[in-house]
Amino acid sequence: MKSSVIANVVEHDLCIGCGLCAALCPQDVLSMQWNRYGEYNPVEMTPCTTECGLCAKVCPFSDTGENEDTIGEQLYGAVPGIRHRPETGYYLASYVGYSEEHRPTSASGGMATWLLEALLTEGVVDHVICVAPTGDPERLFAYQVFDTPEDVRTGAGSAYYPVEMSGVIRHVLETPGRYAVTGLPCFLKAIRLAQQRNKKLRERIVVTVGLVCGQLKSRHFTEYIAARAGVQGDVAGVRYRGKSPDHPASNFYFSFTAADGEEHKIFWSEGIAEAWTNRWFTPEACNYCDDVFAECADVTCMDAWLPEYSRDSRGTNLLLVRSPAVREVLERGQGVRLDPIPVKRVIQSQAGVVAVKRRHLAYRLYLDRDVPEKRVVPERPKNPLLRQEVVLKERMRVLSRDRWGAGERDAEHLREAIGPDLWRLGAGRQISKIITFPVRTLRYIRRKVGGNNHG
């Protein structure tokens, strides 16, 4: 039986497109290319003759026997003061804050960009690897290597667009130095698996900065939202997290530049949320991810989706720190507002993502057990509305991915086709509200009565 990542992962539609397999292949037979769904996959350019299996061993969705718990324990288990929670993995400290200087050009509070610049300025690293715009309509964003704080700022902001790491990982292998790398949970897991098997990567990648992730999106997601915003033809550029002082941080906008130079803007509430939360254009691999907080990262950055912060349109960050060295850099920080925050509040801020990667994942695993073992136990939820939600969102995900991938790229027609499932999902939510309203009311009364009795 072949041990290659093509046979074990790609052919089962479980590839996330990180590119570590292509970067480390001893024979250099793999190349990262677009598939018909607008996602990156490795492709065999010449036949593999050795079948060494290294490509599968560094794949985050391959059955390697390693998971985020085992990797995290190796990396952080012996750190003095380290703690562990099943939602977050290991953590040393948790903070809330922002960089006033970096806030305006960042997706949130600017802390990730500030930290990367600080790592360079303080000499902790020589190079930073992060995602930045390319100016190429065929590949709007890509991983790039930066050596100065000014260059790092070109990568500020979110990129809801496929990227792959084969080129920058080859650069690390070929070019000595100390590197900081940013990435989503699955990408950083792949790096950690690769570091276990490659000494140069262990020595040269010295800081990893993770981002909380609920799902990736294909390039077709950007095309669809651009069409909803009024773009006709190709997208020349996009800014994914524009901020408006008239809206809370949660109602950000995407700004597209069309091929003719015209700008088009669309807010989260005007159609982005519908496609995002219902998992349109989401790769199959995301259905089987159980890492919310980038557990293999030295520090994880995220939005502060908490009521006291999300109303501030300028954006605020939460950070989970696992590395003592990174914590020292943060606590020396100049020009940042950073305060401790209980880890339970960090978890609450990502409640929606935690639900998807725990309760929803449990049901997906119950329905399809032919995937590598996860840390979530397969289970059929008792709540029929939750079961319906998972099934309907999966149908929408498949339909959006298949139709756009087959060349049917009409945003209105796609939404019409998905409409019946959207209606069913909305009806289910209304039923859920009706069912739970008496329970919520009773709890509220009990709290008030209890408070008055103790007053």
TrEMBL record:
InterPro entries: 4Fe4S_Fe-S-bd, 4Fe4S_Fe_S_CS, Co_F420_Hydgase/DH_bsu_N, FRHB/FDHB/HCAR-like, FrhB_FdhB_C. Keywords: Iron, Iron-sulfur, Metal-binding, Oxidoreductase. Its cofactor is FAD. Pfam families: Fer4_7 (PF12838), FrhB_FdhB_C (PF04432), FrhB_FdhB_N (PF04422). Residues 6-35, 36-69 form the 4Fe-4S ferredoxin-type domain. It comes from the Archaea. This is 4Fe-4S binding protein. It comes from Methanoculleus nereidis.
